[in-house]
Amino acid sequence: MENLAILVASFDKVQDILMLWDKKVYKKKIKVFRKFNLYYGLNFKAQNKLKTFNKNILYSETLNWSLSLERWINLIDSQYILILLDDHIIKNFSLTSLESIIKDINKNKVLYAPLTYGTNILSNIVNIKKFIKGKVLDGKYSINLQPAIWEKSSLLRLLKKTNTPWDFELSSSLEYKRNKFNAYFYITKNILFYEQYIERGKVYPRRFYNIFNSDYRLLTNRSPLEFKRRFVSHIGFIYKIFKEFINTLISLIIYD
Q1: 25 — phi, psi (to 5°)?
Q2: Helix/strand/coil (H/E/C) assignment for every residue in the chain
Q3: CA distances from 136 to 180, 247, 256 (A)
Q4: What's this model's pTM, rounded to 2 decimal places?
Q5: Tens digits of residue pLDDT in 166-180
Q6: CA 150 from chain center: how many Å?
Q7: pLDDT digit string (tens) for the chain, length 256 residues
Q8: Which of 16, 102, 136, 144 lies most in the core, judged by the most C-beta atoms within 10 Å?
Q9: Residue 100 C-alpha from the chain's centroid
């Protein structure tokens, strides 16, 4: 798939999280990922002591978040890039489904295509041979850093205006509200991700176990997230899923 690359964006200080991604995802699906140019994004080459199964590592030589992402992307020779964070653990991954989505993105000149919009509900409803596709609706975080396929030049343009991930999501969402650039979500049972298990550098113990089938203390020295924060996050997650479910029903298109 020459016009699509995958970038797992990480950071030197969280190399332990990237190592978990490498072992859990890349090692188990090496044959699949060999069909792509898959890269890890880190900061400084001199500080890298990782021994990963994937050897394609890009270095930004800066700690600035947006500049790091911009430099990684500029090193990738591909029109479209699937951007993942290092705690976006892939659950299902179908080349056939991804190729169909890329074909539709290319045909319709889509600039931003999130792959997890309302999936916890909708992936259990949609026929495995079908996709759900819909226009991304306006919202405070309508453009965000959840797993998504980006058109390279459009992403670079948005990064020019920000310094942090939060700035990026807010300013990009405002620009989308003003200019309505071409953004569609795609949902299929064949491409799924686990819930993110890291927040503010701490671990969601149950999410971690669901992904790795192991107590987090056996694989990482990170502390668990406080119970109050986990509870608030869980309520927020439920709200997000139902809101996205309703929004999806407003704008969805089902296609083969």
Answers
A1: -105, -60
A2: CCCEEEEEECCHHHHHHHHHHHHHHHHHHHHHHCCCEEEEEECCHHHCCCCCCCCCEEECCCCCHHHHHHHHHHCCCCCEEEEEECCCCEEEECHHHHHHHHHHHHHHCCCEEECCCCHHHHCCCCCCCCEEEEECCCCCCCCCCCCEEEEHHHHHHHHCCCCCHHHHHHHHHHHHHHHCCCEEEEECCCEEECCCCEECCEECHHHHHHHHCCCHHHHCCCCECCHHHHHHHHHHHHHHHHHHHHHHHHHEEEEC
A3: 9, 9, 20
A4: 0.88
A5: 999 999 999 999 998
A6: 10
A7: 568 999 999 999 999 999 999 999 999 888 888 888 999 999 999 878 889 999 999 999 999 999 999 999 999 999 999 999 999 999 999 888 899 999 999 999 999 999 986 555 565 666 656 678 888 888 888 999 999 999 999 999 999 879 899 999 999 999 999 998 999 999 888 899 998 999 888 999 999 999 999 998 888 889 887 766 666 565 656 556 666 666 666 555 544 4
A8: 136
A9: 18
CATH number of the domain at 4-255, out of 3.90.550, 2.60.40, 3.30.70, 3.40.1130? Answer: 3.90.550
Reading the block at residue 181, the tokens are 């650039």
217-224 CB contacts, 8 Å cutoff, 24+ apart: 219/20, 220/16, 220/17, 220/20, 221/16, 222/16, 222/198
Q: Residue type at 27?
A: K
Q: Which residues contact 255 (CB under 8 A, 6 or more apart)?
A: 104, 130, 131, 133
Q: What is the pLDDT of residues 63-94, one digit of tens each?
A: 999 999 999 999 999 999 999 999 999 999 98
